[in-house]
Amino acid sequence: MRAIQMVRPEAGAAELQLDLPVPIPGPGEVLVRVAATAICGTDRHIYHWDPSLASMIQPPVVIGHEFCGHIQALGDGVRGWETGQYVSAEMHLVCGKCRACQAGNQHICERTVIAGIHQDGCFAESVVVPASNLVALDESVPPEIGAFLDALGNAVHTVQSARSIAGRHVLLSGYGAIGAMASAVVEFEGASSLTITEVSPTHLERARKWAAGCSGQTPIHIHNPAEEGEEWMKAMRDHTKGGVDVVLEMSGAKPAIDSGLEALYPGGEMMMLGLPSGADLVLANFSKNVIFKGLTMKGILGRRMFATWQEMLGLLKRGLRVEHIVTHRCGLEGFHEGIRLLDAGEAHKVIMLPSAGNPKTPISCES
Ligand SMILES: [Zn+2]
Ligand SMILES: [Zn+2]
C-alpha cells in the first residue's frame, strides 16, 4: 500500500512509499481503509524534526493520526463492529491500568502511545487500530470533516474545559486550524463576545471572512497585536468592561500567553493548548497577573475518551459549521506541498484522500 513514512530521524525525511505491506489486525484490532486524512500541526513538528517530538519517534514510521474510513477487516475477538462501517478513531492508545486511566482520565494516561508518532499511523491507504478506539460515524458527517475529528475534538475539549462559555467574554489567541475550530464552537455556544488575536495575515484574513458570515449574536473582534501594539488590549477592556473571562490559548507563543494572562478579568480561566517550542516558559508579571487575579490555568491534552467525541458529534448534528476550515485537498502525493502551504500559513486544513491517482499539488478549496 501507499503511505507517508518518516524514514530517517532528520528534518524533511518523510517519503511517499508505494509498496508497504498492508498491516494485519491482531486480536482486538481492526483494519480501516482510510477515506480521508488531515495534516495536523503535530505532523509539521514531526516533519521538521522539532525537539518537542523528535525523541518520541523511531523511524521508519508511518505518520498521521487524523482520519476517517471504513472497516476493512476485523482481528480475532472483535465484537460489535462490522466490515464496511464508517468510523474514525482515537489515536491515543491508552493503558487502561494507570491511575489516570482508572480515574476516568484516559486522555492523560501516563503510558499513552500515539499512532502516527510512536507507531504507524494513518497517512496510508489502510491503518490498524484497536477496536476499543473506534468511533462510529453517522453518514451525515462528510469524509472531509470526519478526517479531522481528532483536531476538532481538541478544540471542543479546550472550549469545554472552561467552566462555561455561554454569556462570557472569550479571548482566543492563535487562529490556526484548531483556533478556527474553537472559534466556531465558541460562537456556536453563544459567548458574549469573542476576541481573536493572530499575527499571520492569511489567518487573519480567514478569521475576518469567517466572522463576516456569522450571525452577529456573538460580537467577534479580530486583532493583530504585532501591528496594533497595546491598542487591541484597550479596545478589548472597553467592550468587555474590564477583561475577558476565558482565554483559549492556541498559539504557544510567549507574547500571546503573557497578554492572555494580562487580558483576563480577576477570577478568569486560561485554557492552554498551544505548545511553546522550548521546554521552558517564563511568564511576565506572574504574581500580578496570575496570583493576585486568582486565575485558573489549565493544560489541555487530546480530548476526553470518549465523552468529547460524542459531544462533538452532537454539536455537528446540531449544526456546528466547520467545513470552512478545509482549505486544500490532495492525494498522499501532495503531502510535502501540503506541509509547505501550512508552514507558509497559506492553508488551514489540508485533507489527503489516499486513493490512487490524486494530484501532486493540493487543490485549493478557497474561493
Ligand atoms: Zn492532530
Ligand atoms: Zn493509563
Structural write-up:
With 367 residues, the chain is of the alpha/beta class. It contains 13 helices and 19 strands. The strands form 4 sheets. Strands 3, 5, 6, 9, 10, 17, 18 and 19 form an 8-stranded mixed sheet that branches. Strands 13-12-11-14-15-16 form a 6-stranded parallel sheet, sandwiched between helices. β14, α10 and β15 form a beta-alpha-beta unit. The longest helix is centred in the middle third of the chain and has 12 residues. It is globular. The chain starts with a strand and ends with a strand. Bound molecules: zinc ion (2 copies).
Key structural traits:
367 residues, binds zinc ion, single chain, 29% helix
Gyration radius (Cα, Å) is 20 Å
Instruction: Report the oligomer.
Output: single chain
- How much of the polypeptide forms β-strand, as a percent range? 15-25%
Number of domains: 2
Mean pLDDT: 96
Instruction: Assign a percent range to the helix content.
Output: 25-40%
Main CATH class of the largest domain: Alpha Beta
Small-molecule binders here are: zinc ion
What's the CATH H-level homologous superfamily of the largest domain? Medium-chain alcohol dehydrogenases, catalytic domain
Structural class: alpha/beta
First and last CA, distance: 33 Å
Strand segment tally: 19
- CATH architecture label of the largest domain: Alpha-Beta Complex
Shape designation = globular
Q: How large is the count of helical segments?
A: 13
